[in-house]
Every structure is written in structure tokens, then in C-alpha cells.
What does this fold into?
Amino acid sequence: MIHIFNPEHDIALGAHVEQFTAPHAARQLRHDLGFLPMIWAEEGDKVIVEDVEAAKEAFRHLGLKAKGSWHSWKRIAEVLDVRQPEEIDPWGWDQALFRRMTKAGVSPALLPMPNRMEAIRQMSHRQWAAEHVLPAMRRLPNTVGEATTVSNVSCLMALLHDHGRVVVKAPWSSSGRGIRYLDGQDQASYVAPMHNWARNVIGRQGCLMLEPYYNKVSDFAMEFISDGRGTVRYCGLSVFDTRSGAYTASILDTEEDKVARLATWISADQLILIKEQLTMVLARELGNSYRGPLGVDMMVVSVDNKLMVHPCVELNLRRTMGHVALALTRRFKVLPKIMSIVYTDKYRLKIEAPL
It folds into this structure.
């Protein structure tokens, strides 16, 4: 298997242009953390990176043995030989990755068909999850969550008056960058920058998604793998933190201890109920349209002093930091640990004992 880390995936889905150039931060993240797939690579696997020596050095600091082999993007056409086809496992499939690989000399015969990647793009739209996943999950007890599609700025402003505090999201966005928190009672929310941002997103992506603002108590997620033939397998819980919608850190721990960590707010029985329902819904709705890792972000929230669960805040049809945390958990003998991404002169994956 051939592994590729392309963290600009969500941005590429939103841009949806012939000539896509990832923002500088995404390019640096791809360079600095390109070693991540080696965490879950098996014997005989190949990991494609921007800089082989830099990736080796960064991985060495984790104290783990590299099972696969390192290869440079500059020689990817040699690695991906049409005479010996291997499965390609990127962070996420999109047209930008397809074009980069073909431009590098990779045969299109080794890559997914464009219509498959367009299907992934459409299912990654927040409206798709709001229509195909969230309603079925809301049938479970003690759950909340709704989302409204907004196609123009005037409609957005009118809805603000009715909803009070809301979260406005771009249909495709990455790590909190496409999210705005607004208060319908605060006229300062209507300043020109907000209008301009909303108008630009609608112009580029066709709409916005408006959701109620909830008093969050805890973030968590469930991670899965779809086989592309109608079966979805549960991989494990992800217990993590965010700041302004952006990922900051994850807990590395056993499944039992993660359930215990969440027990203050949500029972083990309710987690099982959510897991079983979500596995069934994802298998039915994804069918044979998506093959690969995915994750569903959730929240425990406080509504009128009662704890409730939002069972589908985000659907990520790609690998997630939750999958990274699960892979690292399998590699470390001593738990728990905290996994975080820090930035100084470059991005680093930091693993440390909890306080």
C-alpha cells in the first residue's frame, strides 16, 4: 500500500478549481508532518513525502520503528508502476491530488475515476450529512442538532433574528477556518467583513450552513472505515480538544478508559447506541460510493441545564487526527498520553504524558 499525507484536502474540495495551489500553512503542514502515515504503515508499505530526510528525522523523534519505506514525491511515478499496481491510501481523495499525481507522471489508470472523487466531494458537503446522517441520528434519545442551508446573505441575516446565537459554516472548510460565530441580537455582527465573508463563500461554494449555537461541554468523535461495498467498521473513540473550531490535541488511551473519561457526561450505554446506529446509517448511506477511513465529530452540550449529545457535528470522509491517535495508541505500551500539533518554526507532532 502507498500512503500520502495531503492535509489541504478539505480546502481543495472547497476550491474545486483546475489549478489549485494550497495555502502556505497547508503546504508547510504537508511538508512537516508528511511522516504521519508511517505511524500506521505496515511491512512493505511505502510512504510518499516531500523531503525524505526531514521525514525520517521527524519520525525518529517519536521513538517508533518505521515498518514501511520512505519515498520522495519527485520519484512517485517510479514507485507507482502500472505494471505492479498497489492500493493508494491518501489522507483524502480530491481532484487536486489527482492532478498533482498525474502531473508527476503517475498513470491515471492507477488512480480513482474523476466521478468517484466528485462523489466524495458531494458527500463531504455539510448539507449531505445534514440530510443523510443527522436526521437518523436525531431519532436517538437525548440528542440535538439541526442545520439550515442558506443561499444568500439577506436570508442569512433574516434567520439570525430568529435564531439568536448561531454558527455559520462554509460547506467545505478545514480546521475551523470556514466557521463564524454570530449573535442575532448583536448588530455588530452585521459589519461589512461578515457580509463580505458570507457573500464570498456563497459565491465560491453555493451556500452557507447555519446551525444553532450550543454550550459545548466536551468534544469527541467516532472513527470508522468503509470497505466501499456497503460495510462500515467501527475503529474507536476519539477524545480531543478544539479551540475556535480548530483541532488542538487528542487523548491516547484504551477504549475502556476513553469511555470512562466521557462517563461524566455520557453513559457507556448511550455511546454503544450511537455507535450501532451510526454504523448502520453510514453503511446504508455510503454504500459503494466511498471506500476508506472516515470520522464523525460529536459534542456533549448543555441545553437548559440538561446534558445532550450532538451526534453529527461534522462528517469527515477522509482520515482524521482521531485515526492518527488510534494508530499511535496501538504503538505505545505506556498509556495514557496526549497528542498535539504545535507550531514554532515548523509544525511538530508532540507526544507527552498528561498533567
